[in-house]
Amino acid sequence: METFKISELAKEFDITTRSIRFYEDVGLLAPTRNGTTRIYQRRDKIRLKLVLRGKRLGFSLAEIRELFELYDTDQSDTQLNQMLLIIDEKQAVLQQQLNDINIVMSELTAARQRCLQAIKK
């Protein structure tokens, strides 16, 4: 069974060991221990990757925890429907942000073109 030290995960994901301990403190990771040494399993590594990806996509730690809890429990229709609601809400927010970004990018491109035209005169 493949295991990892906290320093190995920190290096791989380019984060601090303090961040990893924080994710453990808030219940997102659950390494085993050998004395005071944390031993991370493949599951912890995958969860850490998902936490970091979720944060990058704008999920709060509470939302990430809720998704993990829904996934970890018996996946009844109720849990899966709740997970779908969370995913749909996040997709709607991200789509709106993407639309806003595209509008701003178009406006910036137009402003840049106006500046270039003014310089040429």
UniProtKB/TrEMBL annotation:
A single MF term (Gene Ontology): DNA-binding transcription factor activity
Ranges where the HTH merR-type domain occurs: 3-70
PROSITE patterns the record matches: HTH_MERR_2 (PS50937)
Pfam families to which the protein is assigned, alphabetical: MerR_1
Keywords on record: DNA-binding
PANTHER family registered for this protein in UniProt: HTH-TYPE TRANSCRIPTIONAL REGULATOR YFMP, REDOX-CYCLING DRUG-SENSING TRANSCRIPTIONAL ACTIVATOR SOXR
Name this polypeptide is given: MerR family DNA-binding transcriptional regulator
Organism: Photobacterium sanguinicancri
Classification lineage: Bacteria, Pseudomonadati, Pseudomonadota, Gammaproteobacteria, Vibrionales
